[in-house]
Specification:
There is one protein chain. This protein is mainly alpha-helical. It has one domain. The chain contains 4 helices and no strands. The longest helix is centred in the N-terminal third of the chain and has 27 residues. It is elongated, with a radius of gyration of 16 Å. The termini are far apart.
């Protein structure tokens, strides 16, 4: 295509790649939280789960760079988007896992 640069992804492919990576990182962080911390009441109040989410946020940057996304060009908006999407998907997925793990 004439609008693509030779050194990177198109704007659409970049957006799809960043969104997909952030969502998958959030889901994986929830699965790690559920595996490592469990799905009981004690796990729901543990502060260690936030370390898992932060690790998931920071691990995606080298992976995005490996795929071809120019993470050096990320602004504040892009970084906040990655953090928000990762946290949101972690929160939803881990909430579902915690709800399913509670027995009445």
């Amino acid at each position: 295509m004439a609008t693509e640069t030779a050194s990177g992804l198109s704007d659409h492919a970049r957006g799809v790649t960043v969104t997909t990576a952030a969502c998958l990182a959030g889901i994986l962080a929830a699965l790690v939280s559920a595996t490592v911390l469990g799905v009981g009441i004690d796990a729901a109040t543990s502060q260690l789960q936030f370390a898992v989410v932060l690790a998931a946020m920071f691990v995606q940057y080298p992976l995005l760079k490996l795929v071809g996304v120019a993470v050096e060009e990320f602004g504040v908006k892009d970084n906040l988007y990655v953090g928000f999407m990762t946290f949101s998907l972690w929160f939803i997925t881990y909430g579902i896992l915690l709800s399913a793990g509670i027995s009445a």
